[in-house]
Amino acid sequence: MTAHVRLNDHIGALDTPEGLPAVLAVLGETCAAISRTVAGGALVGALGASGQVNVQDEEQKKLDVITNDMLREALAACAPVFGVASEELDTVEPTGRTGDHGYLVLFDPLDGSSNIDINAPVGTIFSVLPASSGQIDEAAFLQPGRNQVAAGYALYGAQSMLVLTTGQGVAAFTLDVDGQWLRTGEDLAIPADTREFAINMSNQRHWAEPVRRYIEGCLEGKDGPRGKDFNMRWVAAMVADVHRILMRGGVFLYPWDAREPDRAGKLRLMYEGNPMALLIEQAGGKATTDGKQPILDVRPTELHQRIAVALGSAKEIDAFAEA
Ligand code: AFP
Questions:
Q1: Residue 313 placed within a domain
Q2: If you measure from the C-alpha of residue 133 to the centroid of ligand 1, how many angstroms do you get, rounded to a whole number?
Q3: pTM score, two decimals?
Q4: What's the CA gap between 10 and 184, in Å, rounded?
Q5: Last residue within a domain, chosen from 154, 185, 216
Q6: What is the tens place of the pLDDT at every residue in 43-77?
């Protein structure tokens, strides 16, 4: 049996700023606990709606609330964490700590909530930003994604996996029966070419013309301008679609659409777009809003602002940009 490196030993061997290993260790422990809670499903009363609505004006599932509280409490007790922000919280929550070597942690506690009650994959997405020595308010969180010192996700699927970057490549960990994250992949690399796209096709009539042209080119396959057939996937959980792309390539698209013309896109910049973009770029892919503008260069103006997303295999994102 191969001896696998544990998450904390992997982090300890990295060149990381002071305090960051402690933050990542708490995130790993909490995601392992969330994996156990999600796995309990109906047996632990974790399915169904909570009866509450969040700041996104979305009905919260019970697990949205449970997992959000698990992360808030664990991070509030972690000394280098100076504040947290969550998809499920109206605004930021300072921990009251200030000083040097502090971090801000942003998260989507359970991405893919619509999958919970059908036992399809869900996940936790997290982003870690440096905390300034000043006041920890919403403005302190509004940093471009390039400032992230770490980003990752936990995917609760057939296996529970944790995928993490601190800016030195992307590593993958699998949760073992003892609740330990054991390294099962490192230096993940996304193939530059792909024949697989992920998009919610039911929105086709609402897309802008370039998106329609790109998808039509994929659907025409080898009989059309692309000269090759494509396959489609859509898990309705960004974590699972991004994980597939990290494992075998592909593109993931959630573009602007005319259903809500004043909204840049459905996905949130700070705790979905930015962490996933850092992972994708670190694995050699491209992560953009429109095929050209890197997500990591977007200067945030609001904590819960939304963003269009086109990420994945570099050459296919270029083809999307030229459509
Ligand atoms: P939920 O967490 O509300 O299920 O949304 C998941 C998500 O933000 C992202 O993870 C998916 O890729 C995308 O939305 C699915 O959106 P559609 O339900 O419109 O396909």
A1: yes
A2: 35
A3: 0.97
A4: 11
A5: 185
A6: 988 888 888 888 878 888 899 999 999 999 999 99
